[in-house]
Amino acid sequence: xxxxxxxxxxxxxxxxxxxxxxxxxxxxxxxxxxxxxxxxxxxxxxxxxxxxxxxxxxxxxxxxxxxxxxxxxxxxxxxxxxxxxxxxxxxxxxxxxxxxxxxxxxxxxxxxxxxxxxxxxxxxxxxxxxxxxxxxxxxxxxxxxxxxxxxxxxxxxxxxxxxxxxxxxxxxxxxxxxxxxxxxxxxxxxxxxxxxxxxxxxxxxxxxxxxxxxxxxxxxxxxxxxxxxxxxxxxxxxxxxxxxxxxxxxxxxxxxxxxxxxxxxxxxxxxxxxxxxxxxxxxxxxxxxxxxxxxxxxxxxxxxxxxxxxxxxxxxxxxxxxxxxxxxxxxxxxxxxxxxxxxxxxxxxxxxxxxxxxxxxxxxxxxxxxxxxxxx
Length: 376
Hints:
Layout: H1 2-25, H2 28-52, H3 56-70, H4 73-84, H5 90-119, H6 121-141, H7 154-160, H8 163-184, H9 186-193, H10 196-203, H11 205-215, H12 220-241, H13 249-268, H14 275-301, H15 304-335, H16 339-375
Helix pairs in contact: 1-3, 1-8, 1-15, 2-3, 2-4, 2-6, 4-5, 4-15, 5-6, 5-12, 5-14, 8-9, 8-15, 9-16, 10-14, 10-15, 12-14, 13-14, 13-16, 15-16
């Protein structure tokens, strides 16, 4: 599992500056279509090859290529929400983005948990490619009225750009990310850490697998059931928070504290009976709320013209942080009881809340200082 995660996320770290230039220069819808088509082709190619010649090497190669294709997923979502939404509904659409992600999780991840033993891995790949093809059709049919009409399409970008120009765009994206981070100051510090709630959700899948098999003494069905509980509650959270017009650093910190407490609680409760499912309900509400608040606040404060480059830069940093978190949690699961992994995740969530609070206090003091200078 450690090898697979490394193969997925390390190529993404290298590819994100290039995808940042695509998001900065191209239409968001065109970028989404390009990467969705790429993922479908990769899944079909891997599944077809595994039918003819089963090989673990193909799975590892698929991990690398899929890591490249998946890397811009969240930056693409950020850009689409920011460009195609009016300023007064950005927070709402950010929450609805989470709704769409959780619907995909319910259909994809949960369905995989239930069907993996029955139809096998290769059939799952063909099924995933079918869902991917459906997303391509939806992306083709949905045409936003406004947003980025003056930008070029991805294929037009590739036709006009040489390999040298691509390298220039790559380096320019990095330089622009650093320059924008300096301009946004405290906002940039928040941006660098704002995906920690998302990272916690992704990394928590590792101890959950071990928790189900070792602590609960259950199999894929129970794992799928716990994942379904999380996804359904997360879906409800997305709909609930879509009624909010704006978010603040205070709400980010509060939801992160709740996330940290429930993660520790999950490691403490008995793995028998209904307790894991009941705590999973609390965990879903707390963790997804923290994720929605963090993402929505960032979208509120970053300009539309800057969101493509900045979100890709923040995603790159997030990948590095997530790899570190993954190896830490894997080490704890190997050496100690799986509950220690949940304690560590809970501490990470609480530390994130503290960092957000520090940024909030710093901003408040700066505002007071600037007000004093103005009145003086």
